[in-house]
Structures
1.
Amino acid sequence: MELSEALYRCNKCGFCQASCPFYQLTREEWANARGRLRLVREALEGRLAPSDKYALRLYRCFMCGACSATCPSGVPAEEVLLKTREELARKGFIPSPLEELGSRVISTGNISGEDKSLRLSWVQNLDFPVRRNGKPDFVYFVGCVSSLYPQAYGLPQSMVYLLEKRGVNYSVLGEEERCCGYPLLINGQVELALEIAKKNIAAVKETGAKVLITTCPSCYRMWKKFYPELLGEDNPVEVVHSSQWLAEAGLPLKPLEEKLTYHDPCDLGRGSGVYEEPRAFLKSIPGVGLVEMPLTRAEALCCGGGGNVESLEPSAGEGVAKMRLEQARLVGAKAVVTACPQCRRTISRASRGTGLKVVDIVELAAKLLTD
């Protein structure tokens, strides 16, 4: 859809207010899709000159896609923001914290600016060697958060443990893995995202693998949806999210007598349409009672960790995560299960004092796997 057509399709009904996590935090009109689209329209028609303040309004968004999913007029607000950010980036209006984020990704290949030699730090306390050579059938694309944030190391450790136990012929890229480029894409730095996509694809092709599996929904969406769009060609590998693999793996699991609820990651659910596979796996666990929160699937509330907002306004995410935890408490859940390292990280930080556990679905599977 053309930008102008999307802008004029908005009938200003305000449905996006109820679904927008940033609006729930600020209660300010600019924070929902209706307000942001009005700003973009004013700029497009020459009544508002682009400025740092204007840009900040358009970058203070979790890019969760809830507004697009609930819009009765079908306005693709997320697409509008991506196109507008691309134009802002070309004109030099990226907020400085996000420009620094982009520079780290390009210079070091990851979001935290770490040396690439640290990409495999998460393997150090495993009691088996992680495979890096040979001719794998699967490549496990770990992602920046799981590779470089110690509190997330349990996720890739659990994933390779499950792959080992199921006898999967896999490999990891190690130092050859770079950020998937999603932070660059949503910054509006599309050409830089394309550059890093080419490098990742070349590294995966070199392995000869036929399947790429990832535990990160943003990496999954980037590989599955945006890489083909950026390059104008099909992926060289089948792209699978870990929750999809779990749903088909037929793992023998110990019983768990506990009431769980599932949090849909935005890039996996609304962004990629993966809703049923994580739930199918959770329902396969003997004894588990799976309950749904008031907002679920396409209407699920964002965790507060998306859109590069953490780099721009670190405190914003915690407020949204607390709202999500309250929804879990209301349905009597004892634990929140998600399928995303960033969701797990963001919700966990807000969970102190709630009595709720927060766990990734892969870690749960590894814990319950029978010998």
2.
Amino acid sequence: ARGNWGPAADAQRYRVTGMHPTSTTLLQYGWGERVAALYAEVAEAHHQPGRVVRVERASRLGRAACVVRLDSDEVTAVADVRPAVGDWAVVGTDDEGTYVIDHLLPRWSKLARQDPGNENGVQVLAANLDYVAIFAPLDRLKVARIERELLIAWESGASPLVLLTKADLVDDAEAVAEDVRARLVGAEIVVTSSADGTGVRQVSELLQPNRTAVLFGPSGAGKSTLANALLGREALATGAVRENDQRGRHTTTSRHLLPLPGGGVLIDTPGLRALPIWEGEHGLAAAFADIEELAGSCRFRDCSHEREPGCAVTAAVAGGTLDPERMSSYRKLQLEVEQAERNRDVQARQAEASRVKALTKATRNHSKKR
């Protein structure tokens, strides 16, 4: 079945059906049958499809500005709704010849976190992803952070891919990787080293023919270095970590999308130090599927896995089959997910109160004019 997919097969289908794109350019940016079907639902004859490759910080005429890859060229476009890198767009022009995004196609996945500048807001980091590539440097490994990133990745709707980078800087990378696999039950893990090429081909094959991966992790984890290895050129700036605290310096300062020469798409992102959770119920269950499965065997359905009799989870910890540090990480993230849900409820109530207040005011004003 897989032989019917890929850029060449897609190009043939588009030539037969008359659907966009007219060349293979957008195929290299992840265009496929799913995007074509969504585009066909809303596009008109004067429209063009495009993918957002970069979002500008400054607005234009009060509207969000971004760089969009069209079939023929890369252009700057404006939009009434702020897009995210990776969005697929329906693009037209106004009377002055400015490119305008008339529609953003529905996202099938999005990587999001609580907006660090607004506790009641959400920040979409990237959209329409197949993989969230979680970068974890082996020379300063923090498994609890990976578990948090796995939760956010699963919540996005994409598949997580844990990349244990800088394998050349530790004595036995595979032994460390086995320990990580034992704790991160069910996670797809690849050991990589951009210095000697370990794992680079495996990652490249996972992204072929047209899958999109966002690079997710702290500064200095090797995101830009691995991206350059996949691209086959020094397209992105790289930097060393600081010697005093092993923290990375920001070499990527904005999110942008890059097609790979062998097929596949990367979205490079700046290093993230704060990872507040916006939503996470599904992500928590997926990232800790082993604990969720154990919880199904507890005597009480509402077991808190603390001191209840017949708790299968605490029994597994006591019996040595469940890592107590993994259980601690689960409890911490569970509390954050519950707090995030309460925050969203408060925001929803405030929004509804504001809507009712505005409606009441408008009704009163209308009555006074009569």
